[in-house]
Amino acid sequence: MSEAKMTKSHRKGVKETNMKENIHPIERVFRIVLGMSLISLAFWGPSSLWFLLGVIPLATGLKGWCPLYSALGISTCKLRRSAIE
Predict the structure, then answer these.
(1) What are the tens digits of pLDDT across the range 42-81?
(2) How far apart are CA 23 and CA 68, in angstroms?
(3) What is the DSSP annotation of 14-70?
(4) How far apart are the C-alpha atoms of 26 and 7, rounded to whole Å?
(5) Range 14-45 burial, b when 16+ CB lie within 10 A, else e
(6) Could you count the other beta carbons within 10 Å of the beta carbon of residue 65?
(7) What is the pLDDT of residues 10-46, one digit of tens each?
(8) Based on the number of CB atoms within 10 Å of its own CB, is 61 exposed (0-12), middle (13-18) or buried (19 or more)?
(9) CA distances (Å), 85 to each of 20, 74, 81, 82, in order?
(10) Could you count the other beta carbons within 10 Å of the beta carbon of residue 75?
(11) What does the radius of gyration of the chain's CA atoms come to, in whole angstroms?
């Protein structure tokens, strides 16, 4: 059976995630800059693995979705006007 024709009953145990964008564009830019800054420590900063923490804000900034915000029900995105009307 193809994946497109499978119903929810066929996909038992597969958890569907709702990965809607929940980060405001300005916050995304801030996260990307912060992530890149932390990752750059690998090249000119102290020799430790702390630069790996930069992967988290970089990834969430590029994706536009934060799993922690999703778990807490937070969204910093503005509501679209069409959704209000």
Answers:
(1) 888 777 888 899 999 999 999 999 999 999 999 998 755 4
(2) 11
(3) ---------S-HHHHHHHHHHHHHHHHHHHHS-SSGGGGGGHHHHHHHHHT--HHHH
(4) 38
(5) eeeeeeeebbeeebbeebbebbeebbebeeee
(6) 19
(7) 555 545 557 888 999 999 999 999 999 999 988 887 7
(8) buried
(9) 20, 22, 7, 5
(10) 16
(11) 18
| Nearest-angstrom CA–CA distance, 36 and 55 | 8
Location of structure tokens 């536009």:
64
Amino acid in position 55: V
Whether the full predicted model's pTM is greater than 0.90, yes or no, is no
Tokens (6 digits) for 19: 């990965």
